[in-house]
Structure formats: structure tokens, C-alpha cells
Amino acid sequence: MLVVMQEGAAESHIQKVIDRLVSMGFIVHRSSGVLHTVLGGVGPVNDFDPIEFEVMAGVKECHRIVSPYKLASRHFRPGGTVIKIGDVEIGGSQVIVMAGPCSVENRDQIEQAAEAVAGDGAKVIRGGAFKPRSSPYSFQGLGEDGLRMLREAADRHGLLVVSEVMEQAQIPLLLNYADILQVGARNMQNYNLLRQLGEVRKPILLKRGISATIEELLLSAEYIMSGGNYDVMLCERGIRTFETSTRNTMDISAIPVVKSLSHLPIIADPSHGTGRRDKVLPMARAAVAAGADGLLIEVHHDPDRALSDGAQSLHPAQFTELMGQLRTIAKAVDRSI
Ligand code: PEP
Ligand code: MN
How many domains, in total, are found in the chain? Predict the structure, then answer.
């Protein structure tokens, strides 16, 4: 249930509503927007009449949220969420590009990637140090050494870092090196991991599972948010369908659908979404046109020799081309890059 307070409601009135919600058995999440404070009461309490709250001093309106996710629902923050990391804002008017190799492979590789993507205007470098590979015999990532190299390269080029966390035990390590913790498609429904990430106070990039519905994605975000970490960005990275021409089917329609159902920023990953470098650029353009708040793009200086996902990794020159084209698209939809 959601209680929207009147503009400029007194703190004492807000507190009275919180106390009432708590006494009824709700857990209360507070969102302070520019104009209104919104109080989200979550919990298995159904036996209440919204009018009881509507008549309280300082209350503007009260609604039952019918969707199974509450905090991730657009109603909780109608104005949208902007995640601020230093001077980078994700969910604002600028489309934020996160780019870099699939995996951190060595110091030279990650340095070349950082230099290339920073030079073209990316704000965040990506690179996995813990890799969820389909085969146990494939390269599994460099672990902490990889994270250290990634951080050092990012710092040399003024970039933020996003990197994947695969299990709870890795969280402290990721917190030491990364600005954004990525939950991969395979872990979207690892509820223990999601709950733990609710306790951390760094933004989470939550990727859509390969066969997850949008509702399931939003419920996974709800797991994180119910722990008090509201800085969650969602990521459309393609879903598995009957189509075999591409590695996955990039669900561009998920972008506007998520935008209307949720206030959380949505990032598009056309690299995993298509699995082919020749299809990354058109899908990136489509994603920005459809309203994506950011892009996650794999870039490698020598993709044919990449240790993972080479076929979908752009050459640096292709990334330069992509950024140039995206500037035009962004402008057409009143955004910048
Ligand atoms: C990745 O970002 O390299 C990755 C493994 O992504 P996903 O979880 O979407 O497959
Ligand atoms: Mn990859």
C-alpha cells in the first residue's frame, strides 16, 4: 500500500502515518520526491481501508498497489529514479554508456579498453572478473587480480566500474573495487544473493534472466529494494526464444514496458542481446530511441582473440562509430550522451 503525503507535509504528520503503518504490521519504505513524500507499506497485510489513511493530517492520497512488486512499481516514485554516482547520473537526461570487454584478461587489454571507451565518451567501464560460463572448462575470470586491474585502468581514465558478483561470498571484494555490482542473467533469481545485495549501499545492475518475464525481473528488483537498497538499474540483455539467427532475442519492447511499470532506470545490452557484433549498432540505436537510460556494450581491442564473447565484442573503431550515431539518436529523443 502506498500513502502519498501532501506537498510540504509536516514531519510530525509523516511520522504519525509511519507509526500507524508499523502498528498494522507493515514494513515502511520512505521515498522523498521533489514535491511529495511517498510511504510504501509492504507486508502481508490486506485487511485495511485506504480511507483510514486518507483522513489523516497531511495525507494526499492512499492506494493499494495491485502489482506483486511494490517498491519497484512506478507508483512508488512517479518521477523516476536517478542513481547518482559521483557526477554520473543514471536515469537522468543523459544516456550513460558502460563499455569494455566481457572479461578482464590482462593489464594491457583492460588498459587499452579503458583508453578507447573513455576517449569516446563512455562513463563506466565494464569487465567481468568472475565469469558465469556455460562450460566449466571455459575461462572463469581472473578474480581479485582482474578487479584490481579494472579499477586501476578505470581510475587512470576517470571511469566508474561495473563488474559481476556471482555469489554472496564475493560481495565484500566487489565492494572494494566496483562502483556498480552486476547481477548476471543466470543469477537473476538467486534470491539469497539478491537479499544480500539489499544490504549493500552501492548501485546494482540487475540483468534479466534468459527466460524471465518482465514481472519476474521487477520482483527480483523488489528483493533488493526490500532490503533498503533502492539504487537498482534493470538491464534488458535479450531473452531466449525459438529464433536461432541471433544468440538471444533483444526485447526492445521491454524498455518502454519497464518504463511504464517501474521508476527504475533501464539499461540495454545489445551485445548479449544479439551475440553478433554486426547487430550491436542497430540494436543500440533502437534501444536509445525506445528510451533506454543507458547501454552496456562489449568492446575489445582484439575481439577475435578475446577469452569470452569475442563474436559480439566491437572493435574500438566500431565503438567510436556507435557513439557518434547514438549522439544523433539521443538528440532526436531529447537526451544527450
Ligand atoms: C556479461 O555481462 O558478460 C554477462 C555474462 O552477461 P549475462 O549475465 O547477461 O549473460
Ligand atoms: Mn559477456
Answer: 2
